[in-house]
Every structure is written in structure tokens, then in C-alpha cells.
Amino acid sequence: MLxxxxxxxxxxxxxxxxxxxxxxxxxxxxPPPLIPGSSLGDNVGRLLSNENAAFMTGMVNSAIIxxxxxxxxxxxxxxAGFAFAKLRFRGRNALMLSIxxxxxxxxxxxxxxxxxxxxxLQWANHLPSVIVPFLVNxxxxxxxxxxxxxxxxxxLIEAARVDxxxxxxxxxxxxxxxxxxxxxVLALFTFMAQWNEFFWASLAMGDPSNPTVQISLQHLSTGxxxxxxxxxxxxxxxxxxxxxxxxxxxxxxIGGIMEGALKA
Length: 264
Fold this sequence. Notes:
Blueprint: H1 2-20, H2 40-48, H3 55-86, H4 92-104, H5 111-120, H6 128-131, H7 138-151, H8 154-162, H9 167-178, H10 180-195, H11 199-204, H12 213-220, H13 228-263
Helix pairs in contact: 1-13, 2-13, 3-7, 3-10, 3-12, 4-7, 8-9, 10-13, 12-13
């Protein structure tokens, strides 16, 4: 059963690699090819020269958006999580409740007013329209609040204050190092979500010459004739940053997930 599950999970990825390395028309061959070919270079060359897709522009835009939002969400979420978990200030519970409420409202309900705001600021079709509204999110703040509450004892905070640390120094030197497993998990989730984001990006980045990578892939598959070898080559290139992120930070991510499961 486990082997069948593994095969069913891996086969779509493997077949994508097969088609990406084959010539045009491989998907309509009978029987379908199951062994990678030697046409990956030609398919990638046609992909990069396809002016309608603007694939490299999409890759660069998605990298800028994903990295910027990952850094922003992690920094602001850890800062807010520390404040909600360890600092005492008036209205703390009400403010935390309002953040939780934002997680219960479907994002689609805010699309129209958000787009009107972006148009009024003249940010439509520009990167700020897909970066600024998502610099922080309720999930990250809630996750970090829970992790700080369980991982950083109050005695450690008090000891740092006795030693003369101010609030930001406590956050930077005491709290932040203790959050590394949770930071790795939140960073990966945020990077993946923003790299794969399509709905809002397709509305806010409507200019075909300035797409994200997901919009570039959509342009490849819309037309009277679909070159699936080119589409799958683009898909293969688009997942490489995600694989690289998981390989580089895999140990911290798995450690963070396991630690969170044990504490739960």
C-alpha cells in the first residue's frame, strides 16, 4: 500500500520530466513514452525564445516577490508573535482576536476593493501590487505566538531584562535563536505559497510582458495548439527553486515540523 502511494505520488513528476525531454507530440504517442529523451535543451531554448510567455521575466518576478515576502512575513510574524506571547499591553487579547478573524474571512471577498486600491495607487501591473498587501499574514503571527509561548520561558525573558537588555535586544538575541525550527517551516510555506500564487497575480499583473512564472505557464497553455513539451519544460524549470529550497533547508524544516508535533 505504501509502495503504491509512493509510485502514484512520484509518477506525475516523473512523466513531466519525460515529456519535457521529448519532442513535440510525445503526449499523443501510442504507447506513451516512459523513458526520458534528449530534447530538453531544444524545448528549453524554444521556451526562452517564446516572447508570448516571457518566461525568464516571470521567473525573476516570482523570485523577487517570493523572497521579499518570505523575509517580510518571517520578520514581522516573529516580532508580532513575541509581542503577543511575552509582552503585556492594553488590548492585547482583542488585537489577537482581530488577527484571528482575518483568517476566517475568504481572501476572495477582498479582491475587488483591494484591486481598486491598487489601481488608485497606480500599482496595477507592477510588483508592489502583489507584494505590499501580503507583507504579513495572520497565520504567521498566530503560529509564532504559539511557538514563542511554548519554547521561550518567562524566566529567560526576565533574566535578559535583569542583564540590561531592552525589548528589541531580547527579541533579537534571546527569542529569535529559539525560533529557528519554526522560522524554517514558516519560510518554506510562505515561499511555496507565493511562488505558486496565481489568482491575485493574474488580476494584479495583467500585463503579458510583465508576468509571474505561473502566468507565464498559463500563456504557454492557452491557444489553439498546445506545445506540451514546451509547457512541461517550463513546469520543470519552475519547480527547481522549490526543490532547491527544500534541499537546503530540509533538515531544519523536518526538525521544526517534528518539534511542533511533539509539543502539540
